[in-house]
Amino acid sequence: MNIKVFPSILSADLLNMEKSIELVKDLADAIHIDVMDGHFVPNLSYGPALVRALRSKYDISLNVHLMVERPENFVDMFMDAGANHLGFHIEATYHPQRLLKYIRDHGVRPFITLNPATPLNTIEYLLGEVDMVLIMTVNPGYGGQEFLPFCLRKIRTLREMALKEGIDLDIMVDGGIDLNTAPLVVEAGANILISGNTVFTSENPKEVIIKMKSIGYKEV
Hints:
Blueprint: E1 4-7, H1 17-24, E2 31-36, H2 48-57, E3 62-67, H3 75-81, E4 85-89, H4 96-105, E5 109-114, E6 132-136, H5 151-165, E7 170-174, H6 182-188, E8 192-195, H7 197-200, H8 205-213
Parallel strand pairs: 1-8, 2-3, 3-4, 4-5, 5-6, 6-7, 7-8
Helix pairs in contact: 2-3, 5-6
């Protein structure tokens, strides 16, 4: 299984966003965009205007992660802005299956996200509705946090669940992903690495992405 890297622009240079994107666009498999509402998480970040601006200039896939309350009120604006992948938190909506189907029916790839302490049984009956799941490996809201090791067991269990059900599942991980933790999550079963701080604060972001992509994947 090929390892993909989605640089997270939460850690990009806000005054030189275009320069940050140019540094990674040729090697990144998608750009990850965190949307925070100041309610679901204690921070504010980007809106659909940034997604629209990126879409107007770049062909790269845009992976939009809604960290918001009532995501059903936000999905249309981000789909219209040009998101290729659009995900929300299982903790944030009452009707996740309906929302996943709505996103897919509009030609956008949906994904579901779990906070570190949220158990996998909350999405057990949704695995047939998605082909991407995002496991948060820090509590969401801020970049540069320390990786939570207990999430490795969750990643491993999710991969086992997908294999048992015969689902070709992309498992994304986000939070404290660097050159030390990336091999751990890949070995556990993740195949998409979302990394912001490690990529964008590096002297050579391209080299970091290359190293992450070179990590071998072991079947579980």
